[in-house]
Amino acid sequence: MVTTRPTVIVQGTTRAVQTGKVIPTYGAMWTKRETRSPGEPTEPVAVLVDIRAAEHSDFDRVTFEFDRPFRGYTVSYVPRVANDPNGWLVPLPGRAFLEVNIKSATFDNSYQVTAAADRQQYKGPKRLALNLPEILEVAPAGDFESVVSFGFGLKMKNVYRVIALDSPSRLVIDIAHR
Q1: CA distance 116 to 77
Q2: Which CATH topology does 34-176 take?
Q3: pLDDT tens figures, 136-155
């Protein structure tokens, strides 16, 4: 079996080592460094509506979908994932841990609205045991002050990319296969 690992950015694509296969980057760089997009708070905040995960030929993907635009994110490797706001460790399998913080977002907007008809709440699974080639599990790590946080348990530290999309509003995290 030949493994591929995206390494070289070439005008909007990444050339995978070994196979030479070109992977579109969607303007996002593959990195192991902290990735952030600043954003101004929005009212009302975006409510999470779906979490999806899938294995692709050269990477694993997790997609967070929202009912409206969120404003900013921070994604980084951490020694352990801590819950926001209490700091308790979030148990995750793996040898590497990625923390994802999505700003102006929530699981439940009931603190923001007064009319019962306007209340929205994410009803899907928050913890996903995936056992993909790189991503073992995704778990919630907080919903505090309009920031939704997740931790990824990974087999090992590898390059990732972050893609923010709209129509519908989504944050996509890809972890490259080794």
Answers
A1: 39
A2: Immunoglobulin-like (2.60.40)
A3: 999 999 999 999 999 999 99
